[in-house]
Amino acid sequence: MDSLFIFLQHVVPQHLLSRMMGYLAELRYPLWLKNWVIKQFVAHFRVDMSEAVEPDIEAYVHFNAFFTRALKDGARPIADAPVVCPADGAISQLGEIEGGRIFQAKGQYFSTIELLGGDVERAIAFKDGDFATIYLSPRDYHCVHMPIAGTLTATCYIPGKLFSVNGTTAENVDRLFARNERLVCYFDTEVGPMAMILVGAMIVAGIETVWSGQVAPPPATPDLRDYAGVPEPIRLEKGEEMGRFKLGSTVILLFAEDAVKWQDSYQAGTATRLGEALAALD
User: Fold this and answer.
1) Which of 88, 119, 130, 140 is catalytic?
2) Could you tell me the pTM of the whole model?
């Protein structure tokens, strides 16, 4: 079954299927169908709607409005720690970047240079640093927040494939995260440079940031934007929302060498919750 699943990942029209799902997720009518789909999703994934600002599923104008729902104040307290979890979900992998190579799963690696779209100069800053790959769980809150305060210096949209992101594809699709569509966001922080990579996936209908709105899917060409030295710098505090997925995927954090030390309690498969302590300063 795994072999069949991987085969289908290669032959299905990934972008067409994902864009169609994006269109359907924005439909407002018929109301009964929209409400039924959300109700089934809540029941299947056991979504805790008591945490939402709006707990009534019929109040959401479409599925994407429900999926990117806001939480009540205090639903995700931000820990008094140097670096906190940026999202609900689970650790896919985390550890050291070894000579510019990032561990994916079970013998699979990809390079930092590939992940950052071939930007050798920026990749050098993370050559022997640390990474954390976090898969966003469908049942939980699906926005991405800042793990540490930072000032935005650049972004780079990188077009690519849209393989599903899960344990099976991580183990069987070569260089998965360096091949999928993604948005790289660079920040200056108190511990040096940090990169946050929002990775697209099959049926992910879009990637948004709080400063520029929807970034993906745009025309399928790379888009590098420089924010260093702008008249009004974009600074986000720890715990502040920075982006979101319309349907979910993965966020990857990169830090420079000797910047952070991951909490010992985290390993592959460990559940994460937005705002919990993730790392100390090294």
Assistant:
1) 88
2) 0.89
